[in-house]
Amino acid sequence: MTGAGAGQLFIISGPSGSGKSSVVSFVVNSLPDMMFSISYTTREPRAGEQDGRDYRFISREAFETMLARGELLEHAQVFGSYYGTHRSILEEARRQGKDVVLDIDVEGTRQVKSSLARAVAILLLPPSRQELERRLQQRALDTAEMVQRRLERARQEIENYRLYDYLIVNRVLADTCAQVQAIVLAERTRRAGPAGSSPEARAAEARAAGARTEANRSQVSAILESFGAQTQ
Ligand code: 5GP
Q1: Hey, where are the domains in the chain?
Q2: How far is the CA of 41 from the centre of ligand 1 (A)?
Q3: Would you say the pTM of this structure is higher than 0.90?
Q4: For 36-54, how does the pLDDT look when each residue is reduced to its tens digit (9 = 90+)?
Q5: 103 lines ligand 1 (CB under 6 A)
Q6: Pick from 46, 51, 84, 117: CA 20 to 30 A from residue 203's CA?
Q7: What CATH number does domain 9-36+98-226 carry, 3.30.465.10, 3.40.630.30, 2.40.110.10, 3.40.50.300?
């Protein structure tokens, strides 16, 4: 059976604490014909994580074997562990008539965009460095040192914002989800051509246009500055 999706990739990136996991689960569970790309990782499972649902947890040897065989669409090392997306996700999505959501970092996004230019990349931003720090401290999952490492990593991710097609500042989760929904609908409509256009699709297109990276330069510059990031 084929649905609205047809193997389109939607990348969602964002620093830890940007609200990314909530947005990803909204997209996967509330939008039709979406599937989540379950990444491979060599890091240890955290409490509550399940192998085959959140990640496929594997050894470094197994990861390096997949890498050497060219089986990965992209991969990166984050805080000393490998993460990667298996190429088979593309075939699997087409077979099921679905689009795919990838929760990957900026390095993975660069690799996917260079081999599949039509992949759509969305970057979620916190309102400011101070707000991100507050959220990271509030969830109390990390040591003070880890919070600082995450903030530094966030700065590096944000500096690469030009890789992304869309930027969304996650202030109110429900608004962010509605914006991502509009992006998905607009991208699907564009792919379907003029026949796919409807008043609903045109409204989504207008809303998605407001999230395009070019449209948000001025809005994000203050955020970038709060991180001390290079904006030029
Ligand atoms: P965590 O260990 O907190 O689940 O994820 C750490 C980082 O790795 C997040 O930024 C997440 O987006 C990224 N990540 C998760 N899976 C992949 C993947 O398959 N490839 C890449 N490049 N990054 C990933």
Answers
A1: 9-36+98-226
A2: 8
A3: yes
A4: 999 999 999 998 999 999 9
A5: yes
A6: 117
A7: 3.40.50.300
